[in-house]
Amino acid sequence: MDRLKAAAMLAAGLIKAVWQGNFPCLFHMMTGAYCPGCGGTRAVKSLLKGEILLSAIYHPLVLYSVIAGPLLLLWYVYCRKKDKPFRQICWKAALVGGAVLMGGNFVVKNGLLFWGVDVLAVLDQG
């Protein structure tokens, strides 16, 4: 039971650190570049505050997941209720779409960083 309590406390501490922005990105610290997930926590926080456009700018995958996830689930339930086949291509297309968004986010943010524009720092200031 002590291990469970310690694990829960560790998880709570990590969540608190991430939420407060005190949890550094090791990839960014080591390379100076943004990782494919950089901006994700900020995007979730912005989305929870109702700042949809800012969330999409921080990391478009978060908004995509919030929209695509429930839609896929509803489509799956509809197909099951109507005895229609649910094609696996739906899941695959959603995953490919998410991967493209994540890769595009990585390339654009690091491309701008290469040219001297630190997008996340600019957004954090304003």
Features:
single chain, 126 residues, mainly alpha, globular
How would you describe what is shown here?
- This protein has seven helices and no strands.
- It has helices spanning 2-20, 26-31, 40-48, 52-58, 60-81, 88-114, 119-125.
- Helix 5 packs antiparallel against helix 6 (88-114).
- The chain is globular, with a radius of gyration of 18 Å.
- The N and C termini lie far apart (45 Å).
- The model has no long low-confidence stretch (mean pLDDT 85).
In short, what is this structure?
The chain is mainly α and 126 residues long. It has helices spanning 2-20, 26-31, 40-48, 52-58, 60-81, 88-114, 119-125.
Topology:
Blueprint (H helix, E strand, L loop, with lengths): L1 H19 L5 H6 L8 H9 L3 H7 L1 H22 L6 H27 L4 H7 L1
Helix pairs in contact: 3-4, 3-5, 4-5, 5-6
- What percent strand? under 5%
Helix coverage percent:
over 70%
Task: Count up the helices.
Answer: 7
Please give the number of β-strands.
0
- Write down the overall geometry: globular
From N to C, what is the helix and strand string?
HHHHHHH
Main sheet? none
Secondary-structure-derived class:
mainly alpha
Determine the mean pLDDT.
85
**N→C terminal distance:** 45 Å
Rounded to the nearest angstrom, the radius of gyration is 18 Å
Low-confidence stretches: none
